[in-house]
Amino acid sequence: MPGLVPGIHVLEGSAQEGVDGRDKPGHDGDLRMTIDLDAKLIEAGRKLFAGDWQFVWASPSIETLPPMEGLEIAFAGRSNVGKSSLINALTGRNNLARTSHTPGRTQELIFFEGPDKDGLRLVDMPGYGYASAPKTQVASWTALIHKFLQGRASLARVYVLIDARHGLKDVDLDVLKTLDRSAVSYQVVLTKADQVKGAELDACRAKVEAALSKHPAAFPEVLTTSSRSGTGMPELRAAMMKLLEERR
Ligand code: GDP
Predict the structure, then answer these.
(1) Are 157 and 73 a contacting pair, CB within 8 Å?
(2) pTM
(3) Which of 11, 135, 164, 237 is the most exposed, fewest CB within 10 Å of its CB?
């Protein structure tokens, strides 16, 4: 499967072996290095999330955010996109992030930290696009999300979650526009891939990637995940590990 970790392309094991089973020199040697690097990142990513991740802070408003320090990676997406499930799957915890929020309850930015205290925090952002919540409440959550995305120096990356069954909606495009204006790198992650058949999934990914080509701040590649089956989790962990290594 090519391009598992953004910017790195993984090739099948047989591709770098010569007919006698030994490594071929030249270009194939480079491929071997690429594969080794990817395997290392996957393992480092696994370790990063193998420990005990904990809740550290909740902010219902922009005034109550924790001090900016270390490196933050935020997860954003429409309500019900599978954001809490993804954070739980990444950290191997069943209930770190609360799943199936009731629309209308207080929406907060929730910060989690790993056991190594290596300065990496995950930020669970309020879900946006509730159809049934009062308009004023939706407006204040939306303002909170957009303010956070625009003015947070410690925010190194945002993963924008998109339901693989539904693709990009207008509220998602608004968030992408805000991210384009801020200096944060972001990548789209398709969720619930287990619910969509192969060809449909490919079509969804192609459509989202085509839309992203109009957003220069976005990673051109889309990650595909399922919290239920575990698809894409090692690659997402590795991508975060890569970011952490780059910023250290
Ligand atoms: P959030 O509102 O974005 O935090 O979404 P949740 O994580 O609470 O998930 C919303 C619903 O989608 C729940 O019923 C989850 O069980 C379901 N869900 C989340 N991730 C997956 C997935 O990967 N596959 C499937 N089939 N269902 C999922």
Answers:
(1) yes
(2) 0.86
(3) 135
